[in-house]
């Protein structure tokens, strides 16, 4: 379907528009607004969109527009998107399925690089899985289970892409990426690609020392009966369905679990904050570490709920909750 809004056309569609003036021209006469920068002339195999709303690209369904949204078809497109950011002096950020992400209502004033199709390779070489950063993690879990390989079957509950999962050492149900990663291919901010062995990577709880952009990774797996792996995934899916609002707009876990025996969700629950809401944002009544969008939530609503939870838990328990979700934008 053709886009109706001129502001959301691809950059390549706008090159022939006579309303755009080239960068560097003198400002218009006094009283006339200065011309906006010319659309960048970049050969992009994927798509490069301007002023694209981010709400539809996040699992929270919240967020203002990205100045530029790059949908790369390959690693060369990723490098071109970084070049665009550098040439224009703009900030850049990499996203996947938009989970674990809150985009502020004013949007992101730079280049958003969304890893997906074209960067979603999946290949098994023996017991080694070679996976692209744009591959959805649940799909990785199901494909390896179907092929009879164990190690990432529990990741069926991670709602993001492989690249983001490796970068932040995502995990669930007692497993995390640090346990299976053997090599990671990354691109630095200047577009240079290099391979890092597992010995060069430091993984910690929900973090790593990786810098730049994860493009691909190798995962070391073990052999197991597909039937057994699928049975486990079925149990985990039923548990998530019963215990979390996974089918409602949210980012997954809002806070990391502090050290100790009590999780972030337990602490929030003990403070009587299940169901607490501001505007359209509400603490889930199923799992207190999830903040859901009831349909009308803004990023501002979510931020106010986060602030209230942190202040209340700190006051009553002495524990300061740390965010697991990432906040970007203005």
Task: Describe the protein.
The chain folds into 3 domains: 6-114, 2-Layer Sandwich (Uridine Diphospho-n-acetylenolpyruvylglucosamine Reductase, domain 2), CATH 3.30.43.10; 122-228, Uridine Diphospho-n-acetylenolpyruvylglucosamine Reductase, domain 3 (2-Layer Sandwich), CATH 3.30.465; 245-328, UDP-N-acetylenolpyruvoylglucosamine reductase, C-terminal domain (Uridine Diphospho-n-acetylenolpyruvylglucosamine Reductase, domain 1). The two termini are 30 Å apart. It has a 5-stranded antiparallel beta sheet with strand order 6-7-15-11-12. Strands 1-2-5-3 form a 4-stranded mixed beta sheet, covered by helices on one side. The chain has a 3-stranded antiparallel beta sheet with strand order 17-18-19. It contains 7 helices and 20 strands. Strand 18 and strand 19 form a beta hairpin. It is an alpha+beta fold and 330 residues long.
List keywords for this structure.
alpha+beta, Uridine Diphospho-n-acetylenolpyruvylglucosamine Reductase, domain 2, Uridine Diphospho-n-acetylenolpyruvylglucosamine Reductase, domain 3, 3 domains, five-stranded antiparallel beta sheet, four-stranded mixed beta sheet, 20 strands, globular, disordered N terminus
The helix content is: 10-25%
Number of helical stretches of at least 4 residues: 7
* Rounded Rg: 22 Å
- What's the CATH superfamily of the largest domain, by name? Uridine Diphospho-n-acetylenolpyruvylglucosamine Reductase, domain 2
- Outline, from the CA principal axes? globular
Q: Please give the CATH class of the largest domain.
A: Alpha Beta
Major sheet: order of its strands? 6-7-15-11-12
Instruction: Point out poorly predicted stretches.
Output: 1-30
- Count all strands and give the number: 20
Structural class: alpha+beta
The overall pLDDT average reads 90
């Amino acid at each position: 379907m053709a886009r109706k809004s001129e502001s959301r056309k691809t950059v390549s569609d706008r090159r022939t528009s006579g309303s755009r003036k080239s960068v560097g021209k003198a400002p218009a006469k006094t009283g006339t607004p200065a011309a906006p920068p010319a659309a960048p002339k970049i050969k992009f195999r994927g798509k490069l969109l301007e002023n694209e709303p981010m709400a539809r690209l996040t699992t929270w369904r919240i967020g203002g527009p990205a100045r530029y949204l790059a949908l790369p078809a390959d690693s060369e497109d990723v490098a071109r998107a970084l070049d665009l950011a550098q040439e224009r002096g703009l900030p850049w950020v990499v996203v996947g399925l938009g989970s674990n992400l809150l985009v502020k209502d004013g949007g992101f004033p730079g280049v958003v690089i969304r890893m997906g199709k074209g960067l979603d390779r999946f290949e098994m070489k023996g017991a080694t899985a070679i996976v692209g950063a744009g591959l959805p993690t649940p799909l990785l879990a199901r494909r390896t289970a179907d092929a009879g390989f164990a190690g990432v079957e529990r990741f069926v509950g991670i709602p993001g892409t492989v690249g983001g999962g490796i970068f932040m050492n995502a995990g669930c149900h007692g497993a995390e990426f640090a346990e299976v990663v053997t090599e990671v291919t990354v691109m630095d901010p200047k577009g240079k690609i290099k391979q890092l062995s597992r010995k060069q990577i430091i993984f910690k709880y929900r973090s790593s020392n990786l810098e730049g952009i994860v493009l691909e990774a190798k995962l070391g797996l073990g052999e197991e009966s597909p039937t057994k792996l699928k049975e486990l995934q079925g149990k985990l899916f039923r548990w998530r369905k019963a215990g979390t609002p996974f089918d409602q707009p949210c980012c997954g876990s809002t806070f990391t679990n502090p050290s100790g025996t009590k999780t972030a969700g337990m602490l929030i629950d003990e403070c009587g904050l299940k169901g607490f809401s501001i505007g359209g944002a509400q603490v889930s009544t199923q799992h207190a570490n999830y903040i859901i969008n009831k349909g009308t939530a803004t990023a501002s609503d979510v931020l106010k709920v986060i602030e209230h939870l942190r202040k209340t838990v700190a006051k009553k328990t002495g524990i300061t909750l740390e965010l697991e979700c990432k906040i970007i934008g203005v």
